[in-house]
Write a structure and sequence with these properties.
Layout: E1 2-8, H1 10-23, E2 29-33, H2 40-50, E3 67-70, E4 77-81, H3 90-94, H4 96-100, E5 105-109, E6 122-130, E7 133-144, H5 145-157
Helix pairs in contact: 1-2, 1-5
């Protein structure tokens, strides 16, 4: 399943994340792909809110820490950023495989850096700028397996609601 939607503004991107968080279950993996400033972290912030992480808990990009854990919601959220990694071997030290098999939700920014190591069951969100519209993004929703399909349906069925 593949579909794309247009999202205008950071608030709407965060709302998309809230919807996604509401549909997540333990073990779900969400791959976030897009250039710097595309909206990956804003979507992850909404995802955290949709999982019930309180608004007073700051959700920040884990560019330098690699993984930020949020255990304040109905499920743990593991927010991962692969931007600074250069080789697949470095992923072993991050513990990404353990997170994929865990009881939380894993959101991975810069997922496309190591596509060969992707879990089979996942939702990929490719976020791109729309030329000539600074605040508008095209989000391509790509479902892999039953998990990806469930999450994609939750996003596309609630558009405009």
């Amino acid at each position: 399943m593949s579909e794309s939607i247009e999202v205008v503004g950071a608030e709407r991107m965060a709302e998309l994340g809230v919807k996604l968080g509401g549909a997540c279950a333990a073990g779900d993996v969400i791959a976030l792909v897009g250039e710097l400033g595309a909206g990956k972290t804003v979507l992850a912030q909404g995802l955290a809110r949709g999982l019930g992480v309180p608004a007073d808990v700051p959700i920040t990009s884990p560019t330098f820490t690699l993984i930020n854990e949020y255990k304040h919601g109905r499920l743990p959220l593991y927010h991962v950023d692969l931007y600074r990694l250069e080789r697949e071997a470095e992923l072993e030290h991050v513990g990404l495989w353990d997170l994929y098999r865990g009881e939380g939700v894993v959101a991975v920014e810069w997922f496309d850096r190591f596509p060969r190591l992707a879990p089979r069951e996942r939702l990929e969100l490719h976020i791109g700028r729309i030329p000539g519209r600074d605040d508008a993004r095209r989000v391509e929703i790509i479902a892999h397996g039953a998990v990806g399909t469930r999450l994609a349906r939750a996003l596309t069925l609630t558009q405009g609601a």
